[in-house]
Amino acid sequence: MAEDLKITKGTKEEQYQNLIPQIKGLLEGENDTIANLANITAALKEQFNWLWVGFYLVKNDELVLGPFQGPVACTRIKKGRGVCGAAWLQAQTLIVPDVEKFPGHIACSSLSKSEIVVPFFNNQVVTAILDVDSIHLNDFDDIDAKYLEVIVSLITAI
């Protein structure tokens, strides 16, 4: 297991390409899901300095707050509600350039300006989502979607 994270500069793509092997190292040999989710959120927050990075876990037809880094967050989200609930309902990654323009956006933090949400699938069913918020408008793009989907795929089970 890696003990230190090496933060790198460069293009967004180069940063992801350097971070992914480090995340693999953090996950290697560890089978505790919560520990792995916690390390993924910490690694992403440290590398990109986003406002909020965390997981919501599907429990009893709700998304329930899991490991995260950042300001306090909404604890429970209904299916179809807000960006997280919409990504769960649609079972796809959602990129929101301006959260104020997203119908039904849940403002856990007034500092959040843009967001990306990536679902985790277990047997083709969404069982968790990765949620990332930024203080900048239009901070996420297809590069983020591509690499965050790769990072989520490294998780073996939720």
What structural category do the secondary elements indicate? alpha+beta
The number of distinct helices, counting runs of at least 4 residues, comes to: 4
Give the overall pLDDT as a whole number: 93
Helix content: 25-40%
Strand order of the largest sheet: 3-2-1-6-5-4
| Unreliably modeled segments | none
Can you walk me through this structure?
The protein is of the alpha+beta class and 158 residues long. Helices cover 34% and strands 26% of the residues. Strand 2 (62-69) and strand 3 (76-78) form a beta hairpin. The longest helix has 16 residues, at 12-27. The protein is globular, with a radius of gyration of 15 Å.
What keywords describe this structure?
158 residues; alpha+beta; Beta-Lactamase; 6-stranded antiparallel sheet; 26% strand
Summed up, what is this model?
The protein is α+β, with helices and mostly antiparallel strands. The chain is built from four helices and six strands, in the order H-H-E-E-E-H-E-E-E-H. Helix 1 packs antiparallel against helix 2 and helix 1 packs parallel to helix 4.
Write the SSE topology.
Elements: H1 12-27, H2 33-48, E1 52-59, E2 62-69, E3 76-78, H3 82-90, E4 94-96, E5 114-122, E6 125-134, H4 142-153
Antiparallel strand pairs: 1-2, 1-6, 2-3, 4-5, 5-6
Helix pairs in contact: 1-2, 1-4
